[in-house]
Design a protein that fits this description.
- The complex is a heterodimer of chains A (306) and B (339).
- Chain A has eleven helices and no strands.
- Chain A is mainly alpha-helical.
- The two termini of chain A are 42 Å apart.
- Chain B is mainly alpha-helical and 339 residues long.
- In chain B, 40% of the residues are buried.
- Classes of the chains: A mainly alpha (306), B mainly alpha (339).
- Chains A and B meet through helix 5, helix 6, helix 9 and helix 11 of A and helix 1, helix 6, helix 7, helix 12 and helix 13 of B.
């Protein structure tokens, strides 16, 4: 039994690392496998991946893991220091801080995921279209990009939130609106180097339409550098979202958003230090995880960095 | 004709800056339009007759087509009219001029911290590449990129103010010293020195250390990383080998020759990190109750004072564009190859 699994594992590895892959799928999986081998040798990157997976698990299993309800107030239990009953203490309304942090991971993950699927896609489309078409389209699109880059991100996000009204949805929209320009710049730069290559000419001579060339051939080649950049930016997205929450413009009470939790703990920070400290540690660990993961991915996916 | 080429390039730069500023104005204008607050009701209240409502609406120019409203807005802003703040009932520009020196003081002090720590750290990391100073500096940078600045500020207050009593509390000076010096420049340390009030100067400096140190940490990470990569490029060059072969001391090779050659790109890095410090000051000011532009913007935000918010946004955006332009010009001016 064990011998058999051993051979299948070996067989799988041999199949993945085959010198002459039999199909396109095999070749792709082989590339992924080699990338994974390089990635898994990087200890810091693996720690980052572990932290991010832990965050996903926390978010998925929050109702099972949390010892208390994150919203139920109990004023007889307010501002208790960390103890066996409340590992991370309780806040001003007697709510268990550990439970709130566990549930808060859902909000953090939601913000990161929504920004990470919207902003890079917008930036990718704008950048590849500008880079591929060139001319006045390029000039106009890049001028718009530069205008957005000219604003400090946080201030622009603040202005958008103030216009749209506070709340977690509007905070996500504001962060997404302020995050796309660097992606557009990267995608454009990559597109310009790809545009002149022989295989694009070949595809064009075969009669492929412009949208098909951009979506089918240019976009996939720009993706890996964008993925790296997005992963590296996720920590920044988390910090911005927490900052908006801290200022009272992001998630509204009683939502257990980590930045907002720091804001409510602020007035007790000199005496009941744990109320503001614990959510801050959570933000720090998660941002660190994304930064480590991004660094590791950059080493694997971006050959120029090596 | 190098002179003519310069003129053309300069004109191109000016047009590009003008377009960016116009775009900046368009963005703040549009943000002002999508606010779900009726500007007429904000002025006259909701208990007025339809006639008065229509009259005020006309006075505010809200019956004009959108592009004419935008032109009016641009004209107003160029004349320094940012509207009146609802919160302070003073012209927004007046408010901004009053609070801006505090931000300038904080960001400048933070920049000094960033340069004094970041450049040597970057040089050390490059010289000892792959060994512990390099790793240490990389880890510090990584941590700097992961800690929320407002939380770090709170923790610093908790430790250094509440527990150890090494640092003074929030604010720019102790209450006892407040209003002792007349604001000339608005930068309290400079004002105190001008007035010869050394006590106030030391107190203000003491108050500055913690927020500037926290904020400065974020530019340390950036400046050190850039210095390291510039320095690595230089240390590979042949003139470095030549200098070493000539028997020049290692310190002179590194600090005079290599560092001297990266001074130009470093200047632009420093200018750019100044811009990001202005941004970082928003959250730092909130934590340390530092009465600067960041605190002004956030306070106005919370009371939905749109004129003040957009005015503040515009000023920060303009300073951002200015610093970008400055770093561009400095690069052209200082680097003989770019001339």
């Amino acid at each position: 039994m064990t011998a058999q699994t051993h051979t299948t594992e070996n067989g799988l590895r041999a199949w993945l690392t085959a010198e002459t892959p039999q199909s396109r799928g095999q070749a792709r999986l082989g590339r992924v496998y080699l990338g994974w081998l390089a990635f898994s040798r990087n200890r810091l990157a693996m720690i980052g991946l572990g932290i991010v997976l832990l965050l996903v698990l926390m978010a998925a299993l929050a109702p099972l893991l949390a010892p208390y309800d994150p919203y139920t107030q109990d004023l007889s239990q307010r501002l208790l220091p960390p103890s066996a009953a409340h590992w991370l203490g309780t806040d001003a309304f007697g709510r268990d801080i550990l439970s709130r942090i566990l549930y808060g991971s859902r909000l953090t993950l939601m913000i990161v995921a929504l920004v990470a699927v919207t902003a890079p896609v917008a930036g990718l489309l704008i950048g590849t279209v500008a880079g591929y078409l060139g001319g006045w389209v390029d000039a106009v699109l890049m001028r718009v990009t530069d205008i957005f880059l000219a604003f400090p991100k946080l201030i622009l996000a603040l202005a958008f939130v103030s216009a749209l009204g506070p709340g977690i949805e509007n905070a996500i929209i504001a962060i997404a609106i302020t995050s796309w320009p660097p992606y557009a710049r990267i995608a454009r730069a990559e597109t310009i180097t790809i545009r002149k290559s022989d295989f694009i000419s070949a595809v064009r001579l075969q009669g492929a339409s412009t949208p098909r060339i951009i979506l089918g051939h240019v976009v996939p080649l720009c993706s890996s550098s964008l993925i790296v950049r997005v992963t590296l930016d996720m920590a920044g997205i988390i910090l911005t979202a927490a900052g908006l929450g801290f200022l009272g413009l992001g998630a509204q009470p009683p939502a257990p958003e980590w930045g907002a939790m720091i804001a409510t703990g602020r007035q007790y920070v000199l005496e009941q230090w744990w109320v503001a400290t614990m959510p801050g540690i959570a933000i720090f660990v998660v941002s660190l995880g994304f930064n480590l993961l991004g660094d590791g991915l950059r080493d694997v996916l971006d050959p120029k960095g090596q | 004709m190098p002179g003519r080429r310069h003129a053309i390039r300069g004109a191109g730069l000016l047009v590009s800056v003008a377009l960016t500023v116009l775009g900046l104005l368009l963005v703040t204008f549009l943000i002002g339009r999508v606010v779900p607050i009726d500007p007429v009701i904000a002025v006259v209240g909701d208990r007025v007759s339809a006639d008065t409502y229509a009259r005020v609406r006309q006075e505010l120019g809200l019956d004009l087509p959108l592009w004419q409203q935008f032109l009016r807005y641009v004209g107003d802003v160029l004349q320094g009219d940012f509207g009146t703040s609802v919160l302070t009932s003073r012209p927004v520009l007046e408010d901004i001029l009053r609070v801006f020196p505090a931000t300038l003081e904080l960001a400048t002090a933070a920049l000094i911290v960033g340069v004094l720590l970041g450049i040597p750290a970057g040089v050390m990391a490059a010289v000892h590449r792959g060994r512990w100073p390099d790793h240490l500096i990389r880890v510090i940078g990584l941590i700097g990129h992961s800690i929320p600045v407002f939380w770090l500020g709170l923790m610093a207050l908790l430790v250094f103010y509440a527990r150890l009593d090494w640092a003074p509390g929030p604010g720019r000076v102790d209450v006892f010293y407040e209003g002792l010096v007349d604001p000339v420049t608005g930068v309290i340390t400079v004002d105190a020195l001008l007035a010869g009030e050394t006590d106030v100067f030391w107190n203000a400096l003491h108050h500055l250390v913690l927020p500037a140190g926290i904020l400065g940490l974020y530019s340390v990470a950036y400046i050190a990383r850039m210095t390291r990569s510039f320095m690595l490029d230089q240390l590979r060059q042949e003139y470095i080998t030549t200098a070493r072969v000539k028997g020049m001391s290692e310190a002179r090779v590194i600090w005079r020759h290599a560092l001297g050659n990266i001074a130009v790109p470093l200047t632009t890095v420093v200018a750019l990190s100044y811009a990001s410090l202005l941004e970082g000051s928003v959250l730092t000011e909130t934590v340390f109750a530092w009465p600067g532009l960041g605190l002004y913007i956030t306070n106005s935000l919370l009371s939905a004072d749109m004129n003040a918010v957009l005015g503040g946004t515009l000023v920060v955006g303009a300073v951002f564009i200015g610093l970008n332009l400055l770093s561009d010009l400095l690069y052209r001016l200082l680097d003989p190859r770019a001339r």
